[in-house]
Design brief:
Layout: H1 10-22, E1 25-26, H2 27-35, H3 42-54, E2 58-61, E3 68-71, H4 75-91, H5 95-105, H6 110-126
Antiparallel strand pairs: 1-3, 2-3
Helix pairs in contact: 2-3
């Protein structure tokens, strides 16, 4: 795996969610799981699996008669990379403006505010 995770499209995220949830799967198993949620054609799903394999986000075991696909990155790694990419593109790589905008524009419950306060205190103590 490279240090920099390749960009994943929204459709590719759906494939990854199936692999993270269910573990290693054949293309047919992925197709079946995706078709329970969408009206995508099998060829579309196979194309997305191929793209993810070429991007080296999904690995494939070709030793068996039926290929088995598996994620090469954890869901947390992909979420972290996506969040960093978003912050870089939209907020110039600075987290604070995004956090301020979110807190000012969202109506947060007392519990959510307490949780945020707790996280910030924990971070302060770590430094």
């Amino acid at each position: 795996m490279s240090n920099r995770l390749p960009s994943i499209s929204e459709a590719e995220w759906e494939i990854m969610k199936v692999l993270w949830k269910n573990g290693s799967q054949t293309a047919n198993q992925v197709i079946q799981a995706i078709q329970e949620q969408t009206d995508w054609k099998p060829k579309t799903i196979r194309t997305l699996l191929d793209r993810l394999t070429k991007k080296q986000v999904v690995g494939v075991n070709k030793e068996q008669k039926v290929y088995i696909f598996f994620p090469l990155y954890s869901e947390d790694e992909c979420k972290r990379a996506e969040a960093q990419s978003f912050i870089k593109r939209i907020y110039g790589g600075t987290f604070k403006p995004m956090l301020v905008q979110f807190i000012e524009e969202e109506s947060l419950t007392k519990e959510e505010l307490d949780e945020l306060r707790s996280i910030l205190e924990r971070k302060r103590k770590e430094e």
